[in-house]
Amino acid sequence: MRTRFPQLHLGLKAKFVLTISFLILVTSVILSVFLIERQSSMIQMELEKRGELMVRNVAHNAEYGVLVENKPLLLNLMEGLYQEAEVAYISILDRRGNVLAEWDRNAEFRKVHARTQSGDGTPPATLPSKEYFVFQGQEFYNFSCPIKTTRVERSNEQVGLLLEGKNAAVTRKKQIGLAEIGMSLQNTRREIADMKRIVVLLTALVVAAGVGLTIFLVNIFIRPVKRLVQATERVAGGDLSHVVKVTTKDEIGTLASSFNRMTTSLKESREKIEEYNRTLEGKVKERTAELEKTTKLLQVEYDRLEAIVNTPNLGIVIEDKDCNIRFMNKFLIEIFGNQVGEKCYEKFKGRKDKCPVCPIDEILVKGKKTFTYLDRDAQGHYFELSASLFQDERGESYVLETLSDITEQKKLEQQVEEYTSNLEKTNQELENALRSLKETQAQLIQVEKMAAVGQLAAGVAHELNNPLGGILGYSQFALEKIGQGP
Q: What fold is seen in the domain 310-405?
């Protein structure tokens, strides 16, 4: 038998508070864990850097003390590190691994630490290094660094070169010992634990403050919603006069305003329904009269539409996407007969396939709104065709074509074209005759010009001969006088 748990019904306020509180808690915990891990890593890295720096300094400063194996000098070098609380032991070894000087806060610390050595007892060449170990429940780091010295080696030949002033020495680094520092992690772990407690406390305070602020804000946000819920209950109970007080200009305020408009509209609608019920009989009569009037108007419109459809010399046809004729008016039936249900290109054009220029393709396939062109049927009739999209009450698309019979007009146009052609031919003949007359006229004018020039020359010659004759006579008379002498 299945156990049924009681369903928990939470209000909107509780859902908001729990959801936001959960988000605050999860976010705070994630940030706290990240902060703790980061700070712990930084604290431990700081300890490691300090240990490496100290052991390098000890190895650098202990070079002379290891060369001369001066223990007091080495112990004096260690004194500065005793004050560091984290330092557990310090030891300086020679190249054979023997202890030259050491200081141990607890005599047992260094004894339990096993150092890695090579086969001949010298420290390995891979140092400096860091090694972790645990003793009596305490954690330690052992930092080690080789102690090296610089040696100059010369051969007999190089000594001769040195005497000549040439430097031919070879400088080499040689490991002469090892410096070790053991550092306890106890203070570091204590510091990390204190930091964790502080972070956890701050996280708890942040979560508590966030939850409190959430409850406060949710109370402010939910209060208008509660008023709307109460108003809804009162309206559901029949009280349409209740008005919700609008105190904000946000979405809640808009919702309250819409609710008030809705209740006002419901109240007005209820009053109208009550009024309508009281005047129903009178409105039924008025509605009947309106329907009769509308019926008459529809009949008038139907008659007018029928008159348009049956206009003389105007054909109307409706075709579907498969070129099937769905409707023909009387004008087309008189010409082609009733061809409803047949293919338009077969009955109108006498073809076995679709026309090259098909208005159905232009409208239904290419999406044109209208299409107009001049067409001729198989019987020699000329039509001016105009096609457009037509949809019935079911939304199915058809093509509505109107065909204006322009056969007589086409015949008149042909006659006009013939008359025009004859007139153009006659006009061309008249132009040729006119051109010939103009040429003859030009020749006559040239002849008249030449005759006028001849007459002018004769007149000029006559006028010149008269004075010249007199001059010639006097000239001959003068010559005769001159010939006779005095």
A: Beta-Lactamase (3.30.450)
Q: How many CB atoms lie within 10 A of CB 163?
A: 8
Per-position DSSP letters for 353-414, written without gaps between them: S--SS-HHIIIIIS--SEEEEEEE-TTS-EEEEEEEEEE-TT--EEEEEEEEE-HHHHHHHH
Q: What is the pLDDT of residues 61-120, one digit of tens each?
A: 888 888 888 888 888 888 878 778 888 888 888 888 888 888 877 655 555 444 433 334
Say what percent of the chain tops pLDDT 90: 1
CATH 3.30.450.20 fits 12-193, yes or no: yes
Q: Which string of DSSP letters, residue by residue, matches 442-475?
A: HHHHHHHHHHHHHHHHHHHHHHHHHHHHHHHHHH
Domain 12-193 identical in fold to domain 310-405: yes
Nearest to 335 by CA among 351, 353, 314, 318: 314
Instruction: Name 179's bridge partners.
Output: 92, 145
Q: What are phi and psi of 158, to 5 degrees?
A: -65, -35
Is the whole-model pTM more than 0.85?
no
Across the chain, mean pLDDT equals 76
Burial (CB count within 10 angstroms: exposed 0-12, middle 13-18, buried 19+), residue 244: buried
Within 8 A by CB and 6+ apart from 257, the residues are: 246
Q: What are phi and psi of 99, to 5 degrees?
A: -75, 120
Distance CA 59, CA 177 (A): 8
DSSP label at 263?
H
The backbone region for 377, taken as left when phi is positive above 0, alpha when psi lies in -120 to 50, beta otherwise, is beta
Q: What is each CA distance from 148 to 3, 94, 117, 274, in whole angstroms? A: 79, 11, 17, 111
Domain map of the chain by residue range? 12-193, 310-405
pLDDT at residue 179 tops 80: yes
Query: 17-57, pLDDT tens digit by residue?
Result: 788 888 888 888 898 888 888 888 898 888 889 888 888 88
